[in-house]
Description:
There is one protein chain. By secondary structure, the chain is an alpha+beta fold. Helix content is 17%, strand content 34%. Among the domains are: 12-29 and 303-397, PDZ domain (Pdz3 Domain); 40-66 and 189-294, Trypsin-like serine proteases (Thrombin, subunit H), CATH 2.40.10.10. The protein has helices at 12-20, 55-65, 99-107, 143-146, 282-295, 312-317, 336-339, 359-368; strands at 24-25, 38-39, 69-77, 123-134, 138-141, 149-155, 161-170, 175-181, 202-207, 215-226, 236-239, 251-254, 259-267, 277-281, 298-302, 305-309, 326-331, 347-351, 354-355, 374-381, 384-391, 393-397.
Amino acid sequence: MMQSHKGFKRPSKLAALLLAGGAAIGATGALALGDSDVSRAVVAPAVAHVGSGQPHALADMVQAVGPSVVQIKVMKHAEAQRMAMPLGDNDGEGSDGSMQDQLQRFFGPQFGAGDGTPQQAPLQGALGSGFIIDRSGIVLTNNHVVDGATQVKVQLSDGREFDGTVLGTDPKTDVAVVKIHGTGNFQPVEWGDSGHIRVGDSVFAVGSPFGLGNTVTAGIVSARGRDIGEGPYDDFLQVDAAINSGNSGGPLFDGDGRVIGMNTAIFSPSGGNVGIGFAIPEAMVKRVSDQIIAHGSVSRGHIGVALQTVTPDIADAMGMKNTDGALVASVDLDSPAFFSGVKQGDVVRTFAGHQVKDSRTLSRMVADARAGSSVPVTVLRDGRQLSLNLRIGGEHNA
């Protein structure tokens, strides 16, 4: 709920736009978004497609990185699994298209029977992919691959299998860290730079579709910075590739065989592959996994506001020349933003000297800021640009 503060004034046109505007970002900078047609599961991720002028070069790279890619086998209760099931696309006669209806279609009419509560299901197996980042046996994968797992097994490309323990997860970015129990020649990947990957650059992925073991697909980066409605920090790389069950959590490599992303999701209105897949950028994967490894959890900056996208209508109402910035839809009382002088209706234009493109950009900037620090920001208020020192609070993700 938006909170008004004494003395706040805004044009009536802007007031209507604030109430009717786009998705809001919560007090921690988290987008409040609805369902989407993105399928993300223990089985359904993005994989890539590379074109090299020298066919043997890709083969050499695949041979070099293959030992770093693993298959993740988990046991979990059936209701804990997130199946690759598009939502809101149910035209079956006699069904209402609800989640409950789709679960019954998938698991059978007995699902949720009786008192409306899903019945305890027997343990079922599920497969995913992952990649080694440290010689000690540290493996990265998706949170949704290991979420709810009662047992984790890690199988190397040479067939050796080890027990694994989940060291920590971050559901907001869908990253998880697994530790292999055992000794061996664990070959880590080499990190690339997702910040400099360009649309059209060649990429390739190695994963374990359908439990078949290391399988390679290749293609290009189709787009950057995709928001697919899957979480508060969406910033996906989009790739074109054949997507298959079991690739979730596997690495996306650049043309030099360095990891620039983690394959995570596909867009699939029909449930089948349509050549649109998504990978979490390396920068985010590494930042999150480093915290999990060091602390077992993730800590993020927090300022206590709800943000809204600046639409052309809002920009016009505020006399702005463009839509760059993040509109403060509300400020939590006694929050860091409140005590820093941020007011409802402000448009944040810069953060720590960097331009703020939109509300998602500011959300990520705040999350990456150190709790307890003070960050210079510029805001547009009543047609004037003001400079503030924004205090950063902390949010702990257990």
